[in-house]
């Protein structure tokens, strides 16, 4: 009974990083939650939390205190992060949500590849 593993916010134990092939700048589809079915561009990856913020999606209002003339405060809207498991890459070639595969190029480097059309995702 007392050996339950705690892994909640504030417990001090960080969630383990999930391997992701998503990158900043990718266009992604949200597959669940409030923004399900919408697409947007990844603005920021928060790898240690397995989350990313997506342009204009999952907006939250933050009440900011003013800090002088330059920074008057007020209510600002900003993107809250979305868990990576709820995001799917939208292929830039076939325009469909897809899983990402890896391909090893002739020079030995790895490149991301669309699982649907087998085209390289990064141009
Ligand atoms: Zn594709």
Plain-language structure description:
0% of the residues lie in helices and 38% in strands. It is mainly beta and 123 residues long. It is elongated. The termini are far apart. The model has no long low-confidence stretch (mean pLDDT 89). Bound molecules: zinc ion. Zinc ion is lined by residues 91, 93-94, 98, 114, 116-117, 119.
Summary, kept brief:
This protein has 123 residues and is mainly β. 0% of the residues lie in helices and 38% in strands.
Going by helix content, strand content and strand pairing, the class is mainly beta
Radius of gyration over all CA atoms, rounded: 18 Å
CA(first)-CA(last) distance: 53 Å
Q: Indicate the overall shape.
A: elongated
β content, as a range? Answer: 35-45%
Number of helices: 0
Helix proportion range? under 10%
Bound molecules: zinc ion
> Order of helices and strands, N to C?
EEEEEEEEEE
What topology emerges from the helices and strands here?
Elements: E1 27-30, E2 39-46, E3 51-54, E4 59-64, E5 74-79, E6 81-83, E7 87-90, E8 97-98, E9 100-104, E10 110-114
Antiparallel strand pairs: 1-2, 1-7, 2-3, 3-6, 4-5, 7-8, 9-10
The chain binds zinc ion.
Zinc ion binds next to loops.
């Amino acid at each position: 009974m007392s050996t339950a593993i705690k892994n909640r916010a504030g417990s001090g134990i960080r969630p383990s990083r999930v391997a992701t092939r998503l990158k900043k700048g990718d266009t992604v589809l949200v597959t669940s939650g409030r923004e399900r079915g919408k697409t947007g561009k990844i603005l920021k990856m928060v790898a240690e939390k397995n989350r990313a913020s997506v342009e204009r999606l999952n907006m939250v209002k933050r009440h900011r205190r003013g800090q002088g003339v330059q920074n008057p405060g007020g209510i600002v809207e900003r993107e809250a992060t979305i868990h990576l498991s709820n995001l799917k890459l939208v292929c830039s070639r076939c325009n469909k949500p897809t899983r990402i595969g890896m391909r090893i190029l002739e020079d030995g480097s790895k490149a991301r590849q669309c699982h649907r059309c087998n085209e390289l995702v990064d141009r």
